[in-house]
Amino acid sequence: MTRFSIAVLAFAFATPAWAQDAALLDAGKRVFLKCRSCHSVEKDAGNMTGPNLWGVFGRKAGTEPDFQYSEAVKKSGIVWDEAKIDEWLSSPKSFLPGNKMAFIGLPKEEDRKAVLAYLKKKSAEE
Ligand code: HEC
Fold first, then answer.
1. What pLDDT is stored for residue 1 in this prediction?
2. Cα distances (Å, whole numbers) of residue 89 to 21, 41, 53
3. CA 64 to CA 49: how far, in whole Å?
4. Cα–Cα distance between 19 and 56 in angstroms, integer?
């Protein structure tokens, strides 16, 4: 391999991590527009059609105060982490039958990955 091609390769793989993160968060922000009609993620922003999602990572499903959850969510025993939210979002209806999140889901893995990155950051912001 020539010195030149090594340099080209090094350049191609050297997209800095912060630039990748920024692009992912940006994509996630756009995907989250689908959730915004029902969910806020900012602290103390309150419940809407769906429960407020601030602090959702590590939270037991169905425990946001003053929100009327379905029995399906309340009795699920789930503690929300990345893997569980990913499963939930891929098909809310089949993941927890009888829940009342009227959302078709995000069939594309890349959309879920992006929205999870965004949700993780926003749901932890003071
Ligand atoms: C049409 C309104 C609507 C949309 C759109 C929607 N949700 Fe929901 N979401 C709900 C409702 C209602 C619940 C409560 C479900 C229940 O109690 O059965 C819920 C519950 C949740 C929960 C569980 C929260 C908890 O406290 O246990 C998460 C996580 C969640 N939604 C994430 C999302 C994300 C991320 C999106 C966008 C990709 C989204 N939702 C889109 C209405 C919506």
1. 60
2. 21, 16, 14
3. 13
4. 26
Structure tokens at 60: 């037991």
- CA-proximal residue: ligand 1, atom 33 (nearest): 35
Q: Is the CB of 41 under 6 A from ligand 1?
A: no
The pLDDT tens digits for 76-85 are 999 999 999 9
CA–CA gap between residue 126 and residue 43 (Å, rounded): 7
Ligand 1 midpoint to CA 10 (Å): 42
pLDDT in tens, 30-40: 999 999 999 99
Instruction: Provide the pLDDT for residue 101.
Output: 97
